[in-house]
Structure formats: C-alpha cells, structure tokens
Amino acid sequence: MSERIIKKYPNRRLYDTEQSKYITLTQLRQLIISGESIKVVDSTSEEDITRNILLQIILETESGGQPLFTANMLSQIIRFYGGTLQGIFGNYLEQSLGLFTAQQEQLKNNLGEDPFTAMTNLAQSNMKMWTDLQKDFLTAAGFPNTKKEDS
After folding, report:
1. The pTM is what?
2. Is residue 149 part of a domain?
3. Closest Cα to residue 23, out of 3, 35, 2, 38?
4. CATH code, domain with 18
5. Which tens digit of pLDDT belongs to each residue from 101-146?
6. 95 is in which domain, residue-wise?
7. Cβ(14)–Cβ(25) below 8 Å
8. CA angle at residue 52 from 50 to 55, to 5 degrees?
9. Final residue of a domain: which of 63, 80, 99?
10. Could you give the angle at which helices 115-140 and 86-109 cross, rounded to 10 degrees?
11. Is DNA-binding given among the entry's keywords (predicted)?
C-alpha cells in the first residue's frame, strides 16, 4: 500500500495531495483510523514530519475524553529516553501493538466458531506470541537464553 502524502504549510494547514484539498487534524486522524498509511511533509523543506503530526494527534486525543495513557505510564516511558534500552523498548512496544492488533483481527475472524474453541485457539496463539516476543526482548537486552529449546 502506498503512503498518502499530506503537506503541511507554514499557516499550519494540512493539504491532502490525493484529494487535492485542505483537511483538518481530525480528518487526518480519521484517515489513520480507517487504515490509511500517511506521510506528512513540510511544504517548504520537504522534511518528513509525520511523527510530529502523529504526536500532535495523540496529544489532542489524550486531552479530550478518557485518556489512553496514565501519568504513571507516561513517566515510565520518559525514563526510557536516552537509556541503553531506548531502542529495544520502542521495538518492544511496536511489536506488542502489532500483536494486539493481530489478535483483535483473529478474534473478529473467529466469532462464527464455537466460542470456547475460538477462545482456546486465541489463548494458545497469544501464549506463543508473547513468549517469542519476551524472548526476543530479553535477548536484545543482553540476557542469555537459559531455557533449552525442545528438539
């Protein structure tokens, strides 16, 4: 899937190059929710500012309604910046969210099955995914793999 290019102009306006019209931050958020892959570039420098805009969307979303991140969670995330595990932690979060999204999709796809079978399959799949993710995280953090693999 190709990225949808959004240009940000000095007047703070966002321009959707695919639809050839200006859009709001709320409309951009809706594009992302609907599954669009976006890239936001500064109109004058062509610098990729996607992360900045995504953080702005998160900040606005967190400010209204019920927040996703607690103050304690944000404090813990801040503590990882500049530390030796910053890259590992970011990768761990990204993989965790990917797994969570895959699990949601799997659960949606299995709704027509016997509920007990669907939940059992999901639980078994989850255990394997989380075990693999934890093993990768610990290995990347420099901890030796002490558990012997089954042959």
Report:
1. 0.71
2. no
3. 38
4. 3.40.1170
5. 887 887 777 766 677 777 777 778 778 877 877 787 777 777 776 5
6. 71-140
7. yes
8. 105
9. 63
10. 170
11. yes
Q: Which helix (H) or strand (E) holds 6?
A: strand 4-8
Which tens digits make up the pLDDT trace of 19-56?
999 999 999 999 999 999 999 999 999 999 999 999 99
Residue 31, CA distances (Å) to 20, 28, 60, 82, 92 in order? 15, 5, 16, 32, 25
Query: Quick one: which H or E segment has residue 42?
Result: strand 38-42
Residue type, 36: E
Pair of tokens at residue 131 = 């075990």
Is residue 151, in this structure, part of any structural domain at all?
Answer: no
Task: Give yes or no: residues 40 and 97 share one domain.
Answer: no
Judge if 42 and 58 occupy the same domain.
yes
Task: Count the domains in the chain.
Answer: 2
What's the burial of 40, exposed, middle or buried (CB within 10 Å: 0-12/13-18/19+)? Answer: buried
Q: Which two tokens stand for residue 5?
A: 């290019």
Rounded-to-integer distance, Cα 29 and Cα 17, Å = 16
Residue among 13, 14, 20 nearest 39 (CA) = 14
